[in-house]
Specification:
TIM Barrel, 3 domains, 43% helix, globular, single chain, 362 residues, 13 helices, 14 strands, two-stranded parallel ribbon, alpha/beta
């Protein structure tokens, strides 16, 4: 590594002498990065076949199995704990890959773990422990249950959000029959079009709820459920694990359970004391169920606006060995172990997954 760094410095100096200093630095850095061993942390959420997946969270069991076969054939799968302990010292093998899941859906145990075991590939599942065992869905799933599934809703929606009253008229789309639901079942938040007023409301509320506290989110959901005339019990296919299932998930050595706060808030929207409570409470609940230390963490949502430097400090002081974010990037020895980047995986077939991951590694 020292020889490589020296070569890069020589290249920079030589370019400086002839002019074009910044271009020389960029080229040297690019050369250095290419010659370093690189790793990637993959981010999944669910392994399930779902007809409606507007947030693009699901990977089918068939495709997930294909992904793991690709990892075994071309890459170097390893646990997140091992990857995190090796990359900082330059010991990480090139094309090292760790599999991770966020949130704690029950299909992580039912659908994903058997496939991981069959392929002998370890994974880490980050669980929002305060939601474990509840019958309600995550708020983003609850929004699609209320707005994007077959139903008849009142023609007008009036809702107060942060002191402002928002109003929508659903018109003909208030009646959303099975044919209409099937027609738009392939729609996702990445689609360019917003085909109906229901989808417009869904987009707006997704953006609004993400930055709210858990209490504010629940107030909005309670209002919507009352408006739609439905209860709070969610669909069984979207449920979070029970405490017993969390324990089963962590048995056998193939899956490491990590923390994901208690209630999955956007930590940057909370005061420091509330952030600390969410992070520590989430850790302690999991440790009580598992009977061992929980040393791995992932920030809810995980993009850069979702947490702060203070959040990173709290995670460090809480005793975690590393924490994962949710934005692209490779692992290098200088990567901050409390802001590890991840590669978001979608429901691609094996060939497309292989192509995209090879492109990612460059």
């Amino acid at each position: 590594m020292a020889d490589l760094a020296e070569e890069c410095v020589v290249r920079v100096v030589s370019v400086e002498k002839g002019g074009g200093t910044m271009r020389g630095i960029w080229r040297a850095k690019r050369l250095f990065n290419r010659m370093m061993p690189r790793g990637a942390i993959l981010l999944y959420h669910r392994v399930a076949d779902e007809p409606l997946d507007p947030q693009l969270l699901c990977v089918s069991p068939v495709h997930f199995d294909e992904h793991l076969q690709v990892l075994r054939k071309i890459f170097r799968p390893m646990s997140l704990a091992s990857l995190a302990s090796q990359y900082r010292f330059g010991l990480m093998p090139d094309r090292a890959v760790a599999v991770t899941f966020d949130d704690g859906y029950a299909d992580n145990l039912i659908g994903a773990k058997p496939i991981l075991e069959r392929n002998d590939i370890p994974a880490t599942v980050f669980v929002a422990s305060g939601l474990v065992g509840q019958s309600a869905e995550f708020w983003w799933d609850e929004l699609d249950r209320l707005l994007l599934t077959e139903s008849s809703l009142p023609g007008e929606l009036n809702i107060s959000i942060n002191g402002a009253v928002w109003q929508w008229s659903l018109g003909d789309i208030a009646c959303y029959d099975s044919g209409t639901a099937r027609k738009y079942s392939g729609w996702t938040v990445l689609s360019h079009e917003t085909p109906t007023m229901r989808h417009e409301i869904y987009r707006f509320l997704c953006k609004a709820l993400k930055g709210m506290t858990c209490e504010q989110q629940q107030h909005v959901l309670d209002t919507l459920q009352k408006w739609a005339g439905v209860g709070s019990v969610g669909r069984s296919a979207r449920r979070v694990m029970t405490p017993n299932e969390v324990m089963r998930l962590g048995q056998g050595g193939i899956v490491e359970v990590g923390a994901h706060t208690a209630n999955h808030p956007m930590l940057s929207a909370l005061p420091v004391d509330a952030q600390k409570s969410e992070i520590i409470q989430g850790k302690q609940m999991l440790e009580a169920w598992l009977g061992r230390d929980v040393n791995l963490f992932a920030y809810p949502y995980g993009d850069k606006p979702a947490y702060t430097r203070e959040t990173v400090r709290i995670v460090h002081e809480a005793g975690f060995n590393c924490s994962c974010s949710n934005y692209d990037g490779h692992l290098y020895p200088w990567t901050n172990r409390y802001q590890l980047p991840r590669f978001v995986v979608r429901n691609w077939g094996g060939e497309e997954f292989e192509r995209r991951l090879l492109e990612y590694f460059g």
